[in-house]
């Protein structure tokens, strides 16, 4: 079986682990960067290969490649090509925006923190006057490892947040890069907890998870910081919410972050991440994540 794996940024460890497991399963993975593609008429090629000739497509990430994602969506539908993740053939790549995810989860009745979405820094400043602190502010376009997530203890922290974001934009522009900009902010209530759960689901089913210890509550909440411990068994109520959320969003391969409220004992879903990295997951759980992913792809693509 030949599988096209679409990616934007090359994470060598992820790619190596996927290739190792693919070789054991007798699979051929073609790692295709979006900008290596070309459209000729209504056909899409990678070099001399028409990508409709693959048995299935696995999107490791979409990121800012919205144009290519839309073209691939058209092509997959036209030629009935099986795709992972499902959401790319329904809502499409705009599902990755946190504002869109928030809407879908709340509309489906998933336990999710109280949220509000505004467009500009000025709008954010005005909206924060209506909220109780502490709270969380997220860039709707996201940011790797929580670098687009901010913890505000009090209203005065807004000034520091604004200065940090402006500095980031100036730095990325000076380097000729494209950052997450200064628009699109999701405000969320802060759910006090004793650590967050990272649950991995494949085909909307939990394959395992680990728990990250409480982080130092500082302006930038870097999800990669702090210690974590594997779980021999993920709490049933946590699994239930993670699986429901992945299905609502159509994210077949998901790394879902959840917390249990110290006040109410209820499980709150914080975020669903598409095509998650699995280095820490494998280390903490001893579960072969790439094997699970590839076996799921084989089963879906054969059907």
From TrEMBL:
<feature type="domain" description="ATP-grasp">
    <location>
        <begin position="102"/>
        <end position="298"/>
    </location>
</feature>
<dbReference type="GO" id="GO:0043774">
    <property type="term" value="F:coenzyme F420-2 alpha-glutamyl ligase activity"/>
</dbReference>
<keyword id="KW-0547">Nucleotide-binding</keyword>
<dbReference type="InterPro" id="IPR011761">
    <property type="entry name" value="ATP-grasp"/>
</dbReference>
<dbReference type="GO" id="GO:0005524">
    <property type="term" value="F:ATP binding"/>
</dbReference>
<dbReference type="GO" id="GO:0005737">
    <property type="term" value="C:cytoplasm"/>
</dbReference>
<dbReference type="GO" id="GO:0046872">
    <property type="term" value="F:metal ion binding"/>
</dbReference>
<dbReference type="InterPro" id="IPR013651">
    <property type="entry name" value="ATP-grasp_RimK-type"/>
</dbReference>
<keyword id="KW-0436">Ligase</keyword>
<protein>
    <submittedName>
        <fullName>Alpha-L-glutamate ligase, RimK family</fullName>
    </submittedName>
</protein>
<dbReference type="Pfam" id="PF08443">
    <property type="entry name" value="RimK"/>
</dbReference>
<keyword id="KW-0067">ATP-binding</keyword>
